[in-house]
Specification:
The chain has 186 residues and is mainly β. It has helices spanning 17-23, 38-47; strands at 3-8, 28-31, 50-52, 69-70, 73-74, 77-82, 107-109, 117-120, 129-132, 146-153, 156-164, 169-174. The protein has a six-stranded mixed β-sheet, with helices on one face. Strands 4, 5, 6, 7, 8 and 9 form a six-stranded mixed β-sheet that branches.
C-alpha cells in the first residue's frame, strides 16, 4: 500500500486552514524549516507523524528530535531534509547533510528560498529528486503559497506534486498507481 507524504516549509509561525486541509489525509509530514514555533509542529503532528528540521529563523525550542538535518526513510525511500539548498545539493565532495559513507538519498528536500522547485533526472543527480515545496507563508518569485505531496511505495517514488494552497498544480512528476523509475527519466 502506498504512503502519502505532505511536504511543507517556511510556515514562520502561521499555518493556514487551507494548508491543514491539504495535509489532513497524508500519512507522514516533512517540514523543511523556518517552523516558527512549537505550536506548528503540534498541529502537524496531530495530523500525521512529522519530521522537521531547523531553519534560520528557528531556535533550539523543539527538542532533540529537530536538528539541522533529517534522514527519514519512509516506505523504503531515503530522504535528506535540510532548510538550506546548499546542504542538500550533492556535489563531488558530498554535501553538509551527508557523512562519509552515508547512502545517497533518493529525495533531497529543502526550504529557505520560498520558491517552489522540482528537479529530477540529470538535474537532481545523484539523488532522484530535489525539491523545495515553496512557502506556506510569505512566498517569493511571484508564486502563491504552496506545499508538496509525494506518494511512495516499496522504495520507489510514484508521484510528486507541488501545489498552491488552493490546490492548483505548480509542478508534477510521475503518475499513480503506475510506478515510475526516476533513474530512467532523462
Amino acid at each position: 500500500m502506498a504512503t502519502s507524504i505532505g511536504i511543507i516549509s517556511d510556515t514562520h509561525g502561521t499555518l493556514s486552514d487551507s494548508a491543514l486541509a491539504l495535509l489532513a489525509e497524508v500519512d507522514h509530514i516533512i517540514h523543511a524549516g523556518d517552523i516558527g514555533g512549537p505550536d506548528i509542529l503540534r498541529m502537524l503532528s496531530a495530523l500525521a507523524p512529522t519530521t522537521a528540521v531547523l531553519g534560520n529563523n528557528d531556535f533550539d525550542e523543539y527538542g532533540s528530535s529537530v536538528g539541522r538535518f533529517a534522514h527519514p526513510v519512509i516506505d523504503g525511500v531515503r530522504f535528506l531534509v535540510s532548510h538550506y539548498p546548499r546542504d542538500v545539493r550533492i556535489g563531488f565532495n558530498g554535501c553538509a547533510g551527508l557523512a562519509a559513507g552515508d547512502p545517497i538519498p533518493q529525495v533531497c528536500i529543502h526550504g529557505h528560498t520560498h520558491v517552489p522547485e522540482l528537479l529530477y533526472g540529470k538535474e537532481a543527480r545523484p539523488a532522484d529528486i530535489l525539491l523545495c515545496p515553496g512557502a506556506a507563508f510569505r512566498p517569493r518569485g511571484g508564486f502563491e503559497r504552496s506545499l508538496a505531496k509525494m506518494v511512495v511505495e516499496d522504495g520507489r517514488v510514484l508521484s510528486v506534486r507541488i501545489e498552491t494552497l488552493s490546490g492548483d498544480a505548480l509542478f508534477e512528476y510521475g503518475t499513480q498507481p503506475e510506478k515510475v523509475n526516476l533513474n530512467d527519466a532523462e
